[in-house]
Fold this sequence. Notes:
Helices cover 36% and strands 22% of the residues. 42% of the residues are buried. The mean pLDDT is 94. It has a six-stranded mixed β-sheet. It starts with a strand and ends with a helix. By secondary structure, the chain is an alpha/beta fold. The protein has helices at residues 16-27, 41-49, 78-83, 101-113, 129-140, 167-170, 197-200, 217-224, 233-248, 254-264; strands at residues 2-8, 31-37, 56-61, 75-76, 88-91, 96-99, 121-125, 144-149, 164-166, 175-180, 203-208, 228-230. The chain contains ten helices and twelve strands.
Amino acid sequence: MKIFGLIGKNISYSFSPILHKKIASFYNFPLYYTTFDINNIDEFNIFFQNLKANSISGLNITIPYKKEVFKFVDFVSEETEEIKASNCLKILSNRIEAYNTDYFGVIKTFEKMKLELKNKEVYILGTGGASLAVAKALKDLDAKFFFVSRNIYDKKDFPFANKLIDYNELENRKGYLLINATPIGTTPNTNISPISKQTIENFNILFDLIYNPRETLFLRWGKELGKQVENGLYMLVAQAVKSQEIWFDKKLDYNKIYELIQEEL
């Protein structure tokens, strides 16, 4: 049995152990998956200094350590280099490799939605780590994308500073796809949306990275307006599947696993 896990802060709520155990069970992979709740950077550094002694074969990384891992890795994948955050490590006897499977989760979700993104205008709400994974996917698919931030003037060092607009400007824009990469609308604060229903009307398709609740107010308004909508569950599943593809060097069936998780939920 190989040891894998999720490292982050205050992660007792995480769905990752259940998700990874389901995938491993379906493919009969030798996986034991747990959580490593790390309170501060000193504990984080000690954890990594003892990583190989603890026989850990792979990790998923979540907030606030997605950038901190870089000082411990020997290889950084192309998508991770550009996003400047890693959420997946493969730990070998002679090196540690860093990947960003959120990026692949976004790509797979776009495929599920059957989107044609080349030269289409796309707006991303939020400028956190998840939004950068979304932007990398959109860039690789030749979309014309913009970020929407509450205070664009505080983000001079943002890697896509030339693509920043504020929420007031968004009200006067129209586009193909609107993506919520903020936590606004997550359980338990489900009765709020990052933007108004009137602004949503200006877009054809909505994608919300939130998966709990399954239907945010943002998506519910989109449905009422007759828009195509998608929540973040497929992305969550796909990024976990990609992690196990990396860890076990196998090609897996994303749609089949999604069906299994749907049944579980």
